[in-house]
Amino acid sequence: MTRVRLIWLAVFTLFCTQAAAAQTAKGDPVADAVAQLAQASQDVQAADRMLDARLDEDGQRDLKARLAAARKAASDSADTLQAQITMVDARIAQLGPPTPGVAEAPDIAAQRKLLAQQRSTIDSAIKRERLLVIESKQIDDELDATIAARRGRRLAQQMPSILTPGFWGPLLQAIPGDVARTGQLARLGFATAVAGARGAHGWLALVGALVAILVLGPVRLRLRAVGRQYAIDNVPGHRVRRSGYALWRLVIGTATPALAALAFAWGLRAAGMVNARWEPIISALVPATVVAAFITALAGALLLRHQASWRLLPIDDTLADSLRPWSWWLAALALVDPVLLAVNDAARASRAAHTAADTAEAVLTLAVAIGALVTIVRRRRAARLALQAEGGEAASGFAHPTIALVALIVSAATIGAAIAILGGYIGLALWLMRSVIFWPAIVIGALYILLTVADDVATSLFAASSRPGILIGRSIGIRPSAIDQFGVLLSGVVRLMLVVLGLGAILTPFGAGFGSFFSQLGTLSDGLTIGQVTISPNAVLRALAVFVVGLALARGFLGWLNNRYLPTTELDDSARNSVGLVARYIGILIAVLWGLAALGIGLERIALLLSALSVGIGFGLQAITQNFVSGLILLAERPVKIGDLIRIGADEGDVKRISVRSTEIVLGDHSTLIVPNSKLITETVLNKTLSNALGRIQILFTVPLNTDPGPVRAIVLQAFADAEAVLDTPAPVVFLDGIVDGRIGFNCMAHVAGPREAYPTRSAVLMQVLQRFVAEGIDIGTPATRFELVGDKRTDGIA
């Protein structure tokens, strides 16, 4: 045993020597991971110390980014350490457990001790990483609470109302001083600009201005025209052409003003024409230009005035022309607001000037919102009146539930902002205008273009008739329908990702995403704790919100599945119904589980609850459970499908609908028979269209024994041939069934396309046969019946 261990020790020592040499060349991963973990720990401690300082919003965002980077570094180091501890455990396993009562060799004992020390060190580092992650999350939560509290204080801060002298008095008193300080700032900036222009590099400012003018003017217009011409000449499909051109206009309309602003600012800085006090103003000009350009480019790409055939939105030219100016006003506000704030800061304007600037921005933003709403309402009203004048039925202005909900939210936010402005809550008014109205509108507009582009490109690129689709089908041998299905699936996946990103972007003003949004709803109370589950109003609201979102996502997925994906498959209506039903119940189940998880009830507790209720379900809901399971069997095995002609008992009809509890059958008198699914599984069911869709007609009759059977057979076959519904294959047949009671029996059979055509075709054929028999004098009457009266032998001879 000792010799075997010595051999293993020699091999292990050689392996460790090579590993050590490799680590010496590449560095010690354990030491690097521990050093990275130590640095992350220092960053978290520094963030904890900075948390006590009074940071502005930018500083708090930077601190959150540092915490996230520290957690990422700690997680990476933990992964490395976990891999190393796995290797150490493997080495310890190779040594095997020590033999009781046997002294180990000194080398093996030393190796075992070294490995134990390494494992202890790595395990301690991993535990430290877990504590570090917990500590950083606690600091992050505290920082989120601080940010939320600051935002709440800013929203709740009340300024003097514009309707009171408290607003106008300080403003009028501060105007002379503010004008003087602003004039001093302007003179200082002008002097610096003149000196820079006369300097050695003054020509750079002119170059920057010329580049900005060229990019903003001819280059932008040329790129837009080139994109449209390329879409006309090279982009296949009308849908991709429209959506691609809209995206191109959005990109060009945003990029060219941004490049122009960058070129202009670069020229001023390179020429030395920017004073230190003017630097924040120039710095604020570039991002403000990007935001303003994005707003006006987005509106232009969506509205496309005088280009109705290229427009994505289903609106007319009049509404597009009416809405376009409001986008320019909104873009102007987005450009002026940060620049004006930077000017006030650089000029060291009074508090009254800052208040007046915020109030003016709130009033102008409210005016833009009201103007856009009034424009939309007027145009919709005019469209309804025009439709009524033409004799059409006018739809409600906000008939769709989603449109009605959006209109209600926008109207409530507008009214709330107006009241807040009159009450002096300017921060609240600006937040309502920006976060509830304009920011969601901008995100939804951009998301609409991206969703349309994703769907058009995916379904057009991966289509059976497209060039890539034909190439894929020929090279790989995939069915055309499979290529269409892949395009629809790819479109659905990309659109789902875009929707999730869009929802996160919409919720950004509320706290940067789902988790922060729900965490900022506030804790109304501690709630009720049952076992390990705490049920509070906040948790209930969160669970309800999550459940509603889950149902909405499930409904959207089912709509996409039934309307987009399944029509591209080769499944029949019954199979599509089965897939749709199963997907529906799975979606509802996932939404319920998601809501319960948001409530704090995990899957293990749900399983425990179901096991406790299993007895009651087994007895009280036995019939429902039986029908439910039978419905699943019907949907899976499909012995009965939608559209089948079946007979159950004495009833016969067409299967109209199959659910998980019952099946609806339309009878011949147009009534509906609702049959529990368990009957279709446990009882005998005649399915006339399961394996063979053909229908058979059968005619039985007899003729006298002295009748020639040849003409009779010819008449029947001719009647079958004259009937259009009778199929040539299988061919009609006429059999002599036998001779009974002095008559010849005939059994005649033919086939039709379906069992539903058998009865009327049989009636028509029988009608023609009877007419020909009458004309030919062939008797097909019933045989004569003779009755004999037999007397009772016991009464014979009795008088």
UniProtKB/TrEMBL annotation:
<feature type="transmembrane region" description="Helical">
    <location>
        <begin position="609"/>
        <end position="635"/>
    </location>
</feature>
<dbReference type="InterPro" id="IPR023408">
    <property type="entry name" value="MscS_beta-dom_sf"/>
</dbReference>
<feature type="transmembrane region" description="Helical">
    <location>
        <begin position="355"/>
        <end position="377"/>
    </location>
</feature>
<feature type="signal peptide">
    <location>
        <begin position="1"/>
        <end position="21"/>
    </location>
</feature>
<dbReference type="InterPro" id="IPR010920">
    <property type="entry name" value="LSM_dom_sf"/>
</dbReference>
<dbReference type="InterPro" id="IPR006685">
    <property type="entry name" value="MscS_channel_2nd"/>
</dbReference>
<comment type="similarity">
    <text>Belongs to the MscS (TC 1.A.23) family.</text>
</comment>
<feature type="transmembrane region" description="Helical">
    <location>
        <begin position="486"/>
        <end position="519"/>
    </location>
</feature>
<dbReference type="Pfam" id="PF00924">
    <property type="entry name" value="MS_channel_2nd"/>
</dbReference>
<feature type="domain" description="DUF3772">
    <location>
        <begin position="126"/>
        <end position="186"/>
    </location>
</feature>
<dbReference type="InterPro" id="IPR052702">
    <property type="entry name" value="MscS-like_channel"/>
</dbReference>
<keyword id="KW-1003">Cell membrane</keyword>
<keyword id="KW-0812">Transmembrane</keyword>
<dbReference type="InterPro" id="IPR011014">
    <property type="entry name" value="MscS_channel_TM-2"/>
</dbReference>
<feature type="transmembrane region" description="Helical">
    <location>
        <begin position="398"/>
        <end position="431"/>
    </location>
</feature>
<feature type="transmembrane region" description="Helical">
    <location>
        <begin position="246"/>
        <end position="268"/>
    </location>
</feature>
<dbReference type="InterPro" id="IPR011066">
    <property type="entry name" value="MscS_channel_C_sf"/>
</dbReference>
<feature type="transmembrane region" description="Helical">
    <location>
        <begin position="200"/>
        <end position="219"/>
    </location>
</feature>
<protein>
    <submittedName>
        <fullName>Mechanosensitive ion channel family protein</fullName>
    </submittedName>
</protein>
<dbReference type="Pfam" id="PF12607">
    <property type="entry name" value="DUF3772"/>
</dbReference>
<feature type="transmembrane region" description="Helical">
    <location>
        <begin position="582"/>
        <end position="603"/>
    </location>
</feature>
<dbReference type="GO" id="GO:0008381">
    <property type="term" value="F:mechanosensitive monoatomic ion channel activity"/>
</dbReference>
<keyword id="KW-0472">Membrane</keyword>
<feature type="transmembrane region" description="Helical">
    <location>
        <begin position="280"/>
        <end position="304"/>
    </location>
</feature>
<dbReference type="InterPro" id="IPR022249">
    <property type="entry name" value="DUF3772"/>
</dbReference>
<keyword id="KW-0732">Signal</keyword>
<feature type="transmembrane region" description="Helical">
    <location>
        <begin position="539"/>
        <end position="561"/>
    </location>
</feature>
<dbReference type="GO" id="GO:0005886">
    <property type="term" value="C:plasma membrane"/>
</dbReference>
<feature type="domain" description="Mechanosensitive ion channel MscS">
    <location>
        <begin position="624"/>
        <end position="687"/>
    </location>
</feature>
<keyword id="KW-1133">Transmembrane helix</keyword>
<feature type="transmembrane region" description="Helical">
    <location>
        <begin position="437"/>
        <end position="465"/>
    </location>
</feature>
